[in-house]
Amino acid sequence: KGYDDDGSFFVLKKMLRVVVIISLVLLPLPSSLSLSLLAAPRRRQRTRLFADPPSDTSFDEAPWEETEVSSSSAVSSSAVSSLKRDVLTACAVADRGFGASPGDRKRIEGLLEKLRMSNPTSELGASLEPLRKCWRLVYTSAADVTTLAANPVISLAGIYQDARQLPSIVNVIDLKARPLAALPAPFGDRVVARQRVKTTATKLREPLRVSLAFDRVELDAGLGPLGIDLPQLPPQLAQAAYFDVDYLDDDFLLIRQASPGGLFAAVAVDDLEDPFGD
To answer: Terminal CA-to-CA distance of the chain, rounded, Å?
Structure first.
């Protein structure tokens, strides 16, 4: 009859997942895969790649006051906690950076700079143990990621960096079908596919720098994962795909990717969400 146990349309879901797979094959993959293929250093591009979407809410008119943080002395834990709350509020209004205006970005990145200046982590160590958590994205300024929101078929749900099995780090993106967005729950908010990019992390000479060797990309649309192994780059090129840790504590991570540039802020979570809930 075409129904599953919770009353939703089983056949429709499977068809939409096939459409998502086709759209991902035809459209560019995220930066994590791009870096594995184009890891050679490039000059930073300053040209805006897309226009900021209109927004009724802008941080130029934000009603709250930002936490004042001094760079000349140690920052109290209460001040850092307040600063992180400001960051999370700002990022939520700007939809993790995907709907940020220039004013939003200026304010958010000003707050993140204050966090960077109070970074409690000075060294990652060869084992990268301080990174060993599952991190969920709350903000990015990387144009090669934010432009993914322009995909006419899919929209972005949860985005994660799963570093619980170091030195393996898995970048995870959950995807929803944009044509279903106007439907009521549980149809409109269902994840229809999950993309994983598997990498191997290596600590570089700099105390807070990590290189990534890209190993495999997989796509799971609820029918079992499909994947391909990626070609391994020469060491001199592989080390060009790296990020620097600007801030790291027990529940907040801020990294800056080398090429093509951009910030990624994330919070620690217990686990990845169940992508399909079938």
So the answer is: 17
Are 189 and 165 contacting, i.e. CB atoms less than 8 angstroms apart?
A: no
* 169 phi, psi to nearest 5 deg: -125, 130
The candidate with the shortest Cα–Cα distance to 261, out of 116, 112, 144, 110, is: 144
Q: Which of 8, 266, 241 is nearest to 112 (CA)?
A: 266
Those residues whose C-beta lies under 8 Å from the C-beta of residue 257, and which sit 6 or more positions away, are 31, 35, 142, 242, 243, 264
50-86 per-position pLDDT tens digit: 334 444 444 344 444 444 544 434 568 889 999 999 9
| Cβ–Cβ under 8 Å, residues 228 and 217 | yes
Tell me the C-alpha distance between 63 and 107, whole Å: 13
Instruction: Specify the pLDDT at position 236.
Output: 67
With a cut of 60, say whether residue 43 has pLDDT above it: no
pTM: 0.75
